[in-house]
Amino acid sequence: MVKELDCFDRKILDCLSTDARMSLTELSQRVGLSKNPVALRVKALEQAGIIVGYRAILSTQQLGLSHVSFVEVKLDDTRDAALKKFNDAVKNVPEIAECHMIAGNFDYLLKVRTGSMEAYREVMGRRISSLPHVQATSTFVVMEAVVEQTNPPLPETLD
């Protein structure tokens, strides 16, 4: 069963997605409820699996990881065993920030973060191209990130 979010839950999620280190006192002031009900709501959102954790958001610019490429990957075999091998191996390439299986003309879309084009070429040549069952790749280099969210937008309802 999916938890129904009311306006207070949405405000809590909005505040915490912006600043997860916010105190309960500040959160309750922003939401418009006293501290106890806010604490209970946060706990309920955690127990419902809507809040799955808290983390620091790192600056990719300050870490020298501002080069972003998207890579289409076509596999030579898409049976379950081959997909599992690829899925397991791709998790061991730290430069791959995201990996999504795609329905379309290729099998996977990777988001790769490196410090430069030279570093990307190294990762592509030594790591991505040698992943299990990779038949072909196509790279798209990001010129500018217009929208890049760390949290998904909240749907109107979670039905």
User: How confident overall, as mean pLDDT?
Assistant: 93
Write down the secondary-structure element order.
Answer: HHHEHEEHE
Q: What is the number of E strands?
A: 4
Assigned CATH superfamily of the largest domain: Lrp/AsnC effector binding domain/regulation of amino acid metabolism (RAM) domain
How many structural domains in the coordinates? 2
- Helical content (DSSP H or I, runs of 4+): 25-40%
Identify the strand order in the major beta sheet: 2-3-1-4
CA radius of gyration: 20 Å
Question: What is the subunit arrangement here?
Answer: single chain
Number of helices: 5
Main sheet specs: 4 strands, antiparallel
Weakly predicted, low-confidence segments: none
Which percent band covers the strand fraction? 15-25%
Overall structural class, as computed from helix and strand content, comes to alpha+beta
Q: Shape from CA axes?
A: elongated
CATH topology of the largest domain: Alpha-Beta Plaits
The CATH C-level class name of the largest domain: Alpha Beta
Distance between the termini: 9 Å
Corresponding CATH architecture of the largest domain: 2-Layer Sandwich
